Amino acid sequence: MEEHKRGAVLQLARRARAPLRAFAAAVEAAVDELVDAYDDGDEGWRGGGAGGGSRARFVEVTLTDGCFLLEMMRVGRLVLKGKPVRDYAPNDRSSASTGSISCARTSRPT
Question: pTM of the entire structure?
Fold first, then answer.
């Protein structure tokens, strides 16, 4: 699954014509607010405690998962509108398109 998510990050960065570090910097700029949104009390995400590098891992996970979800929504929207998904091959099983297309086809109103 992580391979699929990383592919979505690359697709989004490619379409935005922006370097990955720009996306990471945007997440890093909001990391305190993002961490505060979790109410599980896990202080490890804050970079303290035994994890040490947990803050960097939080940025990585947030960026990767966020891009994957955005890509799934984008592709699902295209499918629901009957538009072609041009940036993925129809048989590309390592992309966000596979799940989006399946979800969109089963949830399309009749």
Answer: 0.72
